[in-house]
Write a structure and sequence with these properties.
- The protein has 13 helices and 14 strands.
- With 390 residues, it is α/β, with parallel strands linked by helices.
- α2 runs antiparallel to α9 and α4 packs across α8.
- The longest helix has 18 residues.
- The N terminus is likely disordered.
- Bound molecules: pyridoxal-5'-phosphate.
- The site of pyridoxal-5'-phosphate (PLP) has 14 residues, from α4 and α5.
Length: 390
């Protein structure tokens, strides 16, 4: 394949004849319609001076729990805190092992390490990119205490067999749902299937704050209570420290913004799904570009839309030279990262390692226009030697 650095399509021009540019993510477009709602929500927080924890956080917790069909939601500082506190509250500690996948954001492993436990990796399913339940038997030991399946890119992991395995081996299941707000596994919201579900509200997430925020959801009253205490310096009441905790509180402005955005999340998910189906259709005639699969059990919410292509880095360069923002999630699996190798060698998890070489994340956000999608598709087709669509 030869890829020229020439501009992709002379016809692809925007307003005033300028070349079309497609950002990877356009938060400005996503927020534009709700500016008045954000302004009045933030003004309310200022008027109440309820900046750290408080009524806006409590309201958002109730709304998010209801959205997830969960009994409890506990707002925390970010998604990493959510994972860490959920594990800590479940009693994961020194010398315990927690099974997870190597093709995730490093925070999944960091949370395990913060509990002084050891991450143990398993390979993923080739089609869904999520934890392969048939791999679990190979790595379970007497020290294994929990499994963290990651609902990567908005695709739920295959929770049925994972929960079955966990029950058989007396393990906790903590879902990393940082990328999967509103995704469904057999009709149930991700985050509510295991003992706890952990969400990130990092600004670029499907439900994103105006800064850092996260949440733990659970149906277990004791667990919810423990996470609440841990996130606030272990205080059961002011200056009475029942547990050794940390400051992982959510702030009031983030909660108020998230309450606004939650009202629009379902519509945003539908728009993401429509963008994904337009991309899928446009590559349906070729095997040179593999599009994401939606598992039979799943409602995918496409936090990331990643295609699989050989010569991925050249395709990426071509797209970027043509004004298209792309991402790679993730270029190095955690077990091969300098800080995390811990005895793992290349080849340990061949599927995750191949995904790291071949996945290319295309622009994906609810406001992506058909014109932008067509331009991205045609640039990918040109870069991979396929015919440009009429
Ligand atoms: C899969 C996954 N887990 C955990 C996190 C951590 O969330 P945060 O950045 O809010 O700490 C992220 C965020 O990027 C993520 O994508």
């Amino acid at each position: 394949m030869t890829i020229s650095a020439s501009k992709c399509l002379s016809a692809a021009v925007g307003i005033g004849g300028a070349p079309l540019r497609v950002p990877f993510l356009d938060l400005h477009a996503h927020h534009a319609a709700f500016v008045n709602e954000f302004t009045s929500a933030i003004r309310e927080v200022i008027e109440c001076s309820a900046f750290a924890g408080g009524p806006f956080v409590e309201r958002f917790e109730q709304e998010f729990a209801a959205y997830c069909d969960s009994r409890y939601a506990i707002g925390v500082g970010n998604g990493t805190d959510a994972l860490w506190l959920a594990l800590l509250a479940l009693g994961i500690g020194q010398d315990d092992e927690v099974i997870t996948v190597p093709n995730t954001f490093v925070a999944t492993a960091e949370a395990i390490m913060l509990c002084k436990a050891q991450p143990v990796f398993v390979d993923v399913d080739e089609r869904t990119f999520t934890l392969d339940p048939t791999e679990l038997e190979k790595c379970v030991t007497a020290k294994t205490k929990a499994i963290i399946p990651v609902h990567l890119f908005g695709q739920p992991a295959d929770m049925g067999p994972i929960l079955q395995f966990a029950n058989a081996h007396d393990l906790f299941v903590v879902e990393d749902a940082a990328q999967a707000h509103g995704a469904l596994y057999n009709g149930r919201k991700t985050g509510t299937l295991g003992d706890a579900g952990c969400f990130s509200f990092y600004p670029g997430k499907n439900l994103g704050a105006f800064g850092e925020a996260g949440a733990v959801v659970t149906n277990d009253a004791e667990l919810a209570k423990k996470v609440r205490v841990l996130r606030d310096h272990g205080q059961s009441r002011k200056y009475h420290h029942a547990l050794r905790g940390w400051n992982c509180r959510m702030d009031g402005i983030q909660a108020a913004v998230l309450s606004v955005k939650l009202r629009h999340l379902e519509q945003a998910s539908l728009l993401r799904r429509r963008c994904a189906s337009l991309y899928n259709e446009a590559f349906a005639d070729t095997d040179d570009v593999s599009t994401p699969v939606e598992a039979d059990y799943a409602r995918h919410v496409y936090h990331i839309y990643a295609i699989r292509v050989r010569e991925r880095d050249e395709v990426r360069r071509f797209l970027e030279a043509n004004g298209i923002g792309c991402g790679i999630h993730y270029p190095i699996p955690i077990h091969l990262q300098e800080a995390w190798r811990n005895g793992y060698v290349e080849g340990a998890f061949p599927i995750a390692e191949n995904l790291a070489k071949e996945l290319l994340s295309l622009p994906m956000f609810p406001e992506l226009t058909e014109e932008q999608i067509e331009y991205v598709v045609n640039c990918v087709r040109e870069a991979t030697g396929l015919g440009v669509l009429a």
